[in-house]
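In the laboratory, one determines a bound structure by crystallizing the protein with its ligand and collecting diffraction data. In a computational setting the workflow is compressed into a single prediction: the sequence and the ligand go in, and a structural description comes out. We illustrate the idea with adenosine-5'-triphosphate.
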Amino acid sequence: MATTMEQIVNLSKQRGFVFPGSEIYGGLANTWDYGPLGVELKNNIKKAWWKKFVQQSPYNVGLDAAILMNPKTWEASGHISNFNDPMMDCKECKSRHRADKLLESQLDTDALERPIEALSFAEMEALIREHNIKCPVCGAQNFTPIRQFNLMFKTYQGVTESSSDEIFLRPETAQGIFVNFKNVQRTMRKKVPFGIAQVGKSFRNEITPGNFTFRTREFEQLELEFFCKPGEEEEWFDYWRTFSRNWLLSLNMKEDHVMLRDHEEEELPHYSKGTTDIEYKFPFGWGELSSISSRTDYDLSRHMEVSGEDLQYIDQATNERYIPYVIEPSLGADRVTLAFLIDAFEEERISENETRSVLHFHPAIAPYKAAVLPLSKKLKDEALGIYEQLSEEFMVDYDETGSIGKRYRRQDEIGTPYCITYDFDSKEDGQVTVRHRDTMEQVRLPISEVAGFLKEKIKF
Ligand code: ATP
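The predicted complex, in structure-token form:
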């Protein structure tokens, strides 16, 4: 049976993956808190990304830039002008709309004296009244006044709330990378092509958040800005597209749940030479997990223009001087965590009248790598000894309550790939039973070999 979002939301809450935010106060819409298992899962996914995109990459290095940035950054990136929408609500059905889009869809805007972008809010409101513009949801002609709606979260730095102290929470991690381009290139003596990777929180005051952690106002991104020589961008665009997709598949994401979608020319901003989204087949439909964009020299050029700093790269070998082109693979940590959770979930029929619930995570991202289970409470001390030894190297669970069958099921439900059972024979032969989550097969292994076994199995 197909997995539903309701199943995933319930499972997340019941098993400690994701809780509704601020729950004891009745929650805060569309905020979610990662519980003990969720934080492990998400951290493991971020680590797996860092491993392939930074640690094992001959090209890339990492960065952790501040969330709060000089507001000029957002002027250069285009977020101040482009993230600004004139919003209004329908008074009847409370649906929210962009005033300029409503006018464009119901009016011959070419006939207007000036383009819509050049109109004041009062002028737009007058047009909406004169031309009986309707709410596309309920057909009413009764709107609130227009308000400026910027997707960026604004706050104030320091004690005064004047416009000169305005500051924004970053809507993407990318700009922290661009403003550090020279710092990184110089200190790390990097030669183009090279990339800078960053993982961190971003904030967008989304008009329509929803679908659990798919779209929230606070989220985490994994971004790489890869700098290459102009003319070589196509080759690198293909390289990072393939690399990004392979990364998902190497963590066992099902191939038929992943699709690459190239943007149409009309969807692209003027500076872009192409964007491919990697989409995942969520229970609510295909949705963007990641996007890989070929951004030309737009970002660095803009920062050069606005800051006055020379951000050109000098090729020491040829003395050539140029602004590198950028390929940007960008992935949402929360979206991809949700996708791995959905992808791993199975209600498996194991006999005529028995099912078990399993999360088939790749061992590298599973919250616990193993659970140590004494067959009887009388064996607690020896089992705890193994637990302590393993927990020096791995995230492991320990459970002594309930029948061994129930304990196996509990570990299946949270995706623990191996259960290690210490029984009465273990005292005699120094061996434990290792049970595999997916096959439910069991093997005997000397206690001294368990750590090495796990290390091998969780390799990524
Ligand atoms: P969408 O079209 O879904 O709004 P986007 O095209 O605006 O996404 P990008 O700006 O390309 O997204 O951001 C890169 C990645 O960051 C996305 O692929 C997604 O995984 C993640 N992301 C963006 N917005 C959100 C959000 N509101 N909540 C969770 N993740 C997000």
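The domain at 368-457 is CATH 3.40.50.800 (Rossmann fold). Keep in mind that any predicted model is a hypothesis to be tested, not a measurement.
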